[in-house]
Amino acid sequence: MRAATLTEFGSPLTVHEVPDPETGSGEVLVEVLATCVPPYAAEVFSGERRYPLEPPVVPGVGGICRVRHVGPDATKLRAGDLVWCDSTVRARDDALTPDITLQGWSSRGEGGARLARYLHDGPFAELMRVPTENVYPLPAGAAADPARWSALGVHTIPYGGLLAGQLAAGETLLISGATGNLGSSAIAVALAMGAGHVVAPGRNRAVLDLLADRFGTRVSPVELSGDEDTDRTVMAAAAAGPIDIVLDLLPPQAPSSAARAAAMTVREYGRVVLMGGVGMLGGADLALPYPWIMRNSVTVRGQWMYPRVANVGMIRLIASGALDLSREHLTQFDLDQVNDAVTHAAAHGGPFDRTVLTPNA
Known about the structure:
The structure is a single chain. The protein has about 350 residues and is an alpha/beta fold. Helices cover about 30% and strands about 25% of the residues. The chain is built from 11 helices and 18 strands. It has helices at about 40-45, 110-120, 145-150, 150-165, 180-190, 205-215, 230-240, 255-265, 290-295, 310-320, 340-345, and strands spanning about 1-5, 15, 25-35, 65-70, 80-85, 90, 100, 105, 125-130, 135, 170-175, 195-200, 220-225, 245-250, 270-275, 300, 330-335, 355-360. The protein is globular and about 55 Å long. The two termini are about 15 Å apart. The mean pLDDT is about 95.
């Protein structure tokens, strides 16, 4: 098969022939039809983000695939099925605190690194080997546009944060980092789940106007000044009532003061979910006042990626039309253009802008 390999950090990806993956029991071999290229992929491949990838590696984060072969433990999957392959792989030998790797992308701790060395390669290739439990059948309608459905790799991430925050219909949500690729996705997903009102802070006026135009009065854009106290005040005022949940999706370059300003708008007994990259590249850590958390009975929790059930829930949201993918802008690249795709993704990381790699085009 052909694959795009990161041979070392700081070098372009190399497209070449490599051996086909060999699957064992509990694994599925799939043909990769479409996979989203994250806007920050260039930062990962350069080493700037310090992800624990071990080159040489075929990178990528999940994808829309066609089943080629299933193992003996599969009871419903069949060769030819159109499926979503989730990159979030959990070790099978500890149900309470399983080690986790993002196949072809990242990992957590030494256990996650060991798992990544086995399930090493991701979807920037014609074929991929994945655990059986990471393969999710798609509705028949998805076959008409696998590239558009590859946005599952984007939308499922904030969906995991909203599930962690136990978003209920009618609640008010503030999304910190709302003008980014994941933040704008969080707005769309939250509204699809029935959120009553979303406060969308950011510093890019053009993007804020775009969000307001797309979603109407259920979204309140807030232009930030960079002053922590001022921004906290204007964000809270924009909600026109209590803020039930704050979901933070700020990137590593964002200051911790921006995350704190957003978090401290939440109401008494409210929930704060942290999913972004603040502090990942150094700088001040997030410092939330102990008395404020305790006296207001605020729940603060982290969420890396999402639980397995989120894959099924997101597929249902899209299949039902509650989450509309038709207005998203797609730019597709074949495997030989993978480095162009990475460059394009870096320059087009705004709301609902998808860069898609199609290895079997």
